[in-house]
């Protein structure tokens, strides 16, 4: 399989990294909105994006993948990937027999400029075997869990609630109230609140804030000013959005990106602009 020629996801059970190699990276592109079937791999996978909107569903949660962060998927973890039109996504597989497990659970990985360049250089360049192994070892050493707030969003298990969740993820600015969603489902507002809390551990209102903040991370990392992001998500007052962002992540948008180890020099293939409020 040639680099940059992936048009489908890797089938379940297909080994990607043979001894003595430590890792390999493939590229797949979505010229139009795409959704791949649920799949698992015998090797751990680091999924990261170059451009576009990518989501990963695994272990009953959904992760939004901003350009500055990757998603670590342990070996054998079933997952489903969705990508918006124009997305470029990378899948880096690690040799489970020759590398130490980064995490036994799905987690975020800071994608510093150095880590990106190492993974891409390994993917694209010819070099002696010894040099490639040294390069790959440095890449493995840089794959470490994020220390800032988690990017995962718990998904409801009840089918009716899942349909609501999917629509909110598709349009985080949807401002329908709990009562309005309940009427649409033929439920009382109290029942909807109780079911949503039971399935996700948070209220529908809190859950929608989580979705908006995670979506904001993608837009801010792409260089969209915080004011524009807040308006796009339905907040007329940017300070309201910034306060909610701080409640979820513990930081303002600008401080969040600084707080994640390695993200001060993290970037997609073109540099990620710093968050701005203009």
Oligomer: single chain
Helix content: 25-40%
Question: What distance lies between the first and last C-alpha atoms, to the nearest angstrom?
Answer: 45 Å
Provide the CATH architecture of the largest domain. Answer: Sandwich
- Main β-sheet, spatial strand arrangement: 1-8-3-6-9
Radius of gyration: 19 Å
- Major sheet: 5 strands, antiparallel
One letter per element, helices H and strands E, the order comes to EEEEEEEEEHHEHHHHHHH
CATH class of the largest domain: Mainly Beta
> Which secondary-structure class do the elements indicate?
alpha+beta
Low-confidence stretches: 1-8, 261-278
CA-based shape: globular
Q: What is the count of DSSP helices, taking H or I runs of 4+ residues? A: 9
Count of spatially separate domains = 2
| CATH homologous superfamily classification of the largest domain | Regulatory protein AraC
GO molecular function, one term: DNA-binding transcription factor activity
Domain HTH araC/xylS-type: 162-259
Protein name: AraC family transcriptional regulator
Keywords: DNA-binding, Transcription, Transcription regulation
Describe the structure.
- This protein is of the alpha+beta class and 278 residues long.
- The chain has two domains: 23-142, Jelly Rolls (Sandwich), CATH 2.60.120.280; 155-265, Homeodomain-like (Arc Repressor Mutant, subunit A, Orthogonal Bundle), CATH 1.10.10.60.
- 37% of the residues lie in helices and 19% in strands.
- The protein contains nine helices and ten strands.
- Strands 1-8-3-6-9 form a five-stranded antiparallel sheet, with helices on one face. Strands 2-7-4-5-10 form a five-stranded antiparallel sheet.
- The longest helix is centred in the C-terminal third of the chain and has 18 residues, at 204-221.
- The radius of gyration is 19 Å and the shape is globular.
- It starts with 22 loop residues before the first strand and ends in a 19-residue tail after the last helix.
- It comes from Streptomyces uncialis.
- Keywords: DNA-binding, Transcription, Transcription regulation.
- One of its GO terms (molecular function) is DNA-binding transcription factor activity.
- It holds the Pfam family HTH_18.
- Residues 162-259 form the HTH araC/xylS-type domain.
